[in-house]
Amino acid sequence: MFKRLLDGTDLGQLKDMVSPAFFDVIPTRVLWKQGRALAKRYRDQRAYTEALTHRATTLNAAELGVNIGAIVGDESDRVEDATARGEALLRLYFHQILVPGPALLDIRCHRFARREDGDGYVFDPGHISVEWDAEFREGLSGIYRGFYGDDDELFVESLDALDLRCAEETFRQQFGEGDQHAVRFEMKTFISSFHDAFVACREAGEQLHSGFLAFGIYLAFLYDHLESIGGGPFDVRSAYEAAAGKQQAEAA
Predict the structure, then answer these.
(1) Contact in structure between 78 and 116 (CB atoms under 8 Å)
(2) CA 148 from chain center: how many Å?
(3) What is the rounded distance in angstroms from the CA atom of residue 136 to the CA atom of residue 159?
(4) What is the DSSP letter of 192?
(5) pLDDT value of position 252
(6) What's the CA gap between 230 and 199, in Å, rounded?
(7) Which end of the chain is more exposed for a tag (fewer CB within 10 A), N or C?
(8) How far apart, in whole angstroms, are the C-alpha atoms of residue 246 and residue 252?
(9) 34-53 average pLDDT score
(10) Looking at the whole model, is its pTM more than 0.85?
């Protein structure tokens, strides 16, 4: 069934990233519905254009050193700093979770490049996008805000809002040990840790929100990209704080 959901898109590599336990914690009808919704958005040029326009506007306002644009020329000829690239990618990753609106999920390596003038990065996304419902996005952003804001009460409340207390330890480990200023990313770690989370949720009798299909794609592509440029270490906490800074200031 998962293969059928991927037909007609460029998501084929995901088949090797998915734990079988994932299908035990999202009901088949929910998974199928969400998969069809993703496929429909993938083919909808108007939805893609709207997502691009929205994200271009919010990224320009955020001043994170990443902007929507076309990758021009041969990226292999450009001098690259893997650490700077990875941390710019992480700022983009957090921005799309923290700031409402459609998220452009395809953040793989070939969609991201240093600008020709060396001033920041260009994000040239494919058509894979999602607009999470408010409940899911608020719960997910609350998990990150609670963790990186050292607000354990918010962290746990947000896990509970998405029925994810069963995966609390996995989320803490995925965010990085210590102060999160030097975190490594490996795809095998991502697959094994989330397999453990899905098994824990299955054993607790929990069923995950449908938003986890798109979030899983997004997170898998993040790990794939970061591993492809050496895996780090990357300063994840500083990337989060940069992405959250202006939003928090405006909310104050």
Answers:
(1) yes
(2) 16
(3) 11
(4) H
(5) 38
(6) 29
(7) C
(8) 10
(9) 91
(10) yes
